[in-house]
Design goal:
This protein has 335 residues and is an alpha/beta fold. The protein has 2 domains: 240 residues, Rossmann fold, CATH 3.40.50; 67 residues, Anticodon-binding domain (Rossmann fold, 3-Layer(aba) Sandwich). It is built from 11 helices and 18 strands. A hairpin with a 4-residue loop joins β1 and β2. Bound molecules: adenosine-5'-triphosphate. The site of adenosine-5'-triphosphate has 11 residues, from β2 and α1. This is Iron(III) ABC transporter ATP-binding protein.
């Protein structure tokens, strides 16, 4: 039997209301999030990702329809109940620089402390456990302004962890991070969803990382709703490619990479190799980058030997050897 969704939306319209008009950003959203899964919300700039996360978290009003958390409509949840069900991590730089890492993370216990905000021994323990979960042991007494962007992001995640909610939502948790930290944060969130049975919903522009780590994608199209599915299903049904279609690049569904589109009138070249290995793949990439298109019938032929450090370029008149791709490309340019 399917478990109950921890978040469910019915016929949801999200957007903004000004004094003069209502501005719907997305309509008719029927979404479900289950515990133990990591959902990545992706889509082009301005399509409504932050608006959706803020609406699901109750930070901005529902324009139409309903959001239920733990089967109860958001509007019927008390503030303290909401704080025990859902935590939201925003990437906007919060002005907490004069706070220690410990005190920032401890703020996550606010829904549970007495009115003076006193922490019990168990709260202290939880803060230290969360710091070790995000690999910030030994940072408790550091000030937030003494952290790198990646460390600050992990401290914010630790704050959400001590809030001890079944749902954590994060708006672009990998923004401003280098590749190591981006991968680490995504892996950490995925692992937390699995290990602690939390539902994790995050928005991101890291398409390749989302494809590799999400249990489910929410693929948002401007003004046209959200397609939901396993990353690979959204690729096989062409939905992913459609949302990110562009004149200057294309999504290669065989490799899962975005490829820059080069010259409109490509030069043809034939690529021969006995086995299709690493060297053949990167030779092809170098050729595409330089405006060549691979065609088995082309008169210009490159032979790749996966076991040697050289390439052979054959024209109708001559055969030239090269020991690097740069040399090969120069030879081709000079023909
Ligand atoms: N306070 C606001 N009042 C009115 N419209 C707004 C407001 N904030 C955002 N919008 C508009 O709502 C739409 C969705 O914005 P939102 O920030 O949710 O998009 P997003 O998908 O998160 O974008 P990005 O990828 O650039 O972060 C945009 O057209 C934006 O201009």
């Amino acid at each position: 039997m399917m478990p109950d969704a921890i978040i469910q939306t019915r016929n949801l319209t999200i957007g903004y209301v000004t004094r003069k008009e209502t501005y719907p950003v997305q309509t008719d959203l029927d979404l479900e999030v289950f515990q133990g899964e990591m959902v990545c919300l992706i889509g082009p700039n301005g399509c409504g990702k932050s608006t959706l996360l803020r609406t699901l978290a109750g930070l901005q009003p529902v324009l139409q329809g309903e959001v239920c958390i733990d089967k109860l409509p958001l509007g019927k949840q008390s503030l303290s109940n909401k704080a025990r069900l859902l935590s939201l991590v925003l990437t906007d730089r919060v002005d907490v620089n004069n706070l220690s890492v410990f005190n920032l993370v401890a703020m996550g216990r606010n829904p549970y402390t007495d009115w003076l905000g006193r922490l019990t021994d168990a709260d202290h323990e939880l803060v230290h456990t969360a710091l070790s979960q995000v690999h910030l042991e030994g940072y408790a007494n550091r000030y937030i302004n003494q952290l790198s962007d990646g460390e600050r992001q992990r401290a914010m995640i630790a704050k959400a962890l001590v809030q001890d909610t079944p749902v954590i939502m994060l708006d672009e948790p990998t923004a401003h991070l280098d590749i190591n930290n981006r991968v680490e944060v995504m892996m950490l969130l995925h692992e937390l969803a699995r290990r602690t049975n939390k539902a994790i919903v995050l928005s991101t522009h890291e398409l390749d990382l989302a494809l590799q780590t999400a249990d489910k994608l929410w693929l948002m199209t401007p003004n046209n709703g959200i397609a939901v599915g396993a990353p690979e299903d959204l690729i096989l049904t062409n939905k992913f490619q459609k949302v990110f279609a562009h004149n200057s690049y294309r999504f290669d569904s065989l490799t899962g990479n975005f490829m820059v589109k080069h010259a409109d009138t490509p030069r043809m070249v034939s690529l021969k190799s006995s086995v299709k290995g690493n060297r053949t793949y990167w030779t092809e990439r170098a050729l595409l980058r330089n405006g060549y298109r691979i065609s088995p019938d082309a008169s210009l032929i490159i032979t790749v030997d996966e076991d040697s450090d050289s390439w052979l370029l054959s024209t109708e008149e001559e055969v030239l050897a090269s020991s690097s791709l740069q040399e090969l490309l120069l030879q081709m340019e000079s023909l």
